[in-house]
Design a protein that fits this description.
Elements (H helix, E strand, L loop, with lengths): L10 E3 L5 E3 L18 E4 L12 H9 L4 E2 L2 E4 L5 E3 L22 E5 L2 E5 L7 H4 L27 H15 L4 E2 L2 E2 L2 H6 L5 H10 L9 E3 L2 H9 L6 E5 L6 H5 L6 H4 L2 H7 L5 E4 L19 H7 L3 E2 L27 H11 L3 E4 L2 H7 L3
Helix pairs in contact: 1-3, 5-6, 11-12
């Protein structure tokens, strides 16, 4: 595939999304490519199809079976340490509910405009979170993963960086970390900003563009990271409905669909190097569950100078288009290889997957 030069027009976005121009940083270098060529394989939360997500086991297994990058979602603790959980509400991914000493911390909060009840990382110190153990988030879908419940602790982002470097040495190839800032507007509102802590970690570990790519659904967060002049690539994640919460909360009517038009992509290219759309934004799925006609998003992104890495590829029938399902069980594996082949033919630059082993094998077929 043709590499697309990184670009950076660094803008510092304020809390109300007002931007001021600051000194541009040099273009980010080419991120690490797979040794055999083809699209990059990004281990979604490690290898979430085979191990409880965001655990050392998930990251390790993902790399062992072919992941080029591993994805830690970042949320803060009460003492402002970045830890890796898909959400700040942790009842689905840890055994916190089984800890009577934390029963009184169950509460209801409004996060990104939604009412959420449970236990939240920002109400625990890192030391307290370390007393919890990870569990499978989808036990009814991935019952096989529940055998690992209770065996792994919650990781700090620093521990994931250390693990990625160790795995890089062991496997003789660069494993990049792919951190996502989760709910950055919300955390900024309660005094636990993500971006300064992330920037400090990138600097402290001397992470270059071959070792780190930062992603977020919120443009404001990416612009704040860009203002730190870190020289690492940035990835604008894109939803399917509505718009980024930072824009919505500031009264900006821009939707994700607007952002995926050629003018919208040109704006993204001012501050980011990648887009990460839902896979159905590349190949729509009809009301009958069957594949539709591919959109022009891959072509349009490349014309804007952006790489593109759709999410999230999974092997179970319920997550596959009807064209690739096998058998009748929702949790049975379908023809995941056929889905990867389709997107690889369309020219995507990466795939974000719960099953990095299958995605890596698909590159060879």
């Amino acid at each position: 595939m043709t590499p697309y030069p990184g670009r950076r027009s660094v803008l510092l976005a304020g809390a109300a999304c007002a931007a001021v121009t600051v000194t541009p940083t040099p273009a980010a270098a080419e991120p690490p490519r797979p040794q055999g060529g083809g699209p990059l394989v990004i281990g979604h939360r490690g290898a979430a199809g085979w191990r409880p997500e965001h655990t050392a086991a998930a990251y390790t297994y993902g790399v062992q079976t072919g992941a080029d990058w591993i994805e830690p979602d970042l949320v803060p603790t009460k003492d402002h340490v970045l830890v890796v959980r898909h959400e700040n509400e942790i009842s689905q991914t840890t055994d916190v509910a089984a800890h009577p000493e934390f029963a009184d911390r169950r509460t209801t909060k409004t996060v990104d405009g939604r009412s959420v009840t449970g236990w939240f990382t920002e109400d625990f110190t890192l030391a307290e979170l370390k007393t919890l153990r990870a569990v499978e988030r989808l036990p009814l879908v991935r019952n096989r993963n529940t055998v690992f419940d209770g065996r792994h602790e919650v990781l700090a982002f620093q521990e994931v960086v250390d693990l990625a470097r160790r795995l890089s040495r062991e496997h003789g190839r660069t494993i990049a970390v792919f951190p996502e800032t989760k709910h950055p507007t919300y955390f900024r509102s309660i005094g636990l900003e993500l971006e300064p802590k992330l920037a400090a970690a990138i600097r402290r570990n001397h992470l270059g563009p071959r070792e780190c790519v930062v992603q977020s659904f919120e443009p404001t967060s990416l612009r704040r990271v860009a203002s730190e002049e870190l020289g690492v690539p940035l990835w604008q994640a894109l939803g399917t409905t509505g718009g980024p919460y930072d824009l919505v909360s500031a009264g900006d009517p821009t939707t994700y669909q607007d952002m995926m038009t050629p003018p919208g992509l040109a704006k993204i290219a001012e501050y980011a190097d990648w887009i990460g759309p839902d896979k159905t934004s590349v190949v729509p799925v009809g009301t009958d569950g069957r594949l539709g006609t591919p959109t022009t998003l891959v072509r349009d992104a490349h014309r804007a100078g952006l790489r593109i890495g759709p999410y999230t590829f999974r092997a179970e029938n319920q997550f596959l288009p009807a064209d690739f399902r096998r058998g009748t069980g929702a949790n049975d594996f379908g023809d995941a290889f056929a889905e990867y082949a389709l997107y690889y033919r369309l020219g995507v630059d990466a795939v974000v997957t719960d099953f990095p082993d299958l995605a890596a094998l698909a590159r060879r077929y």
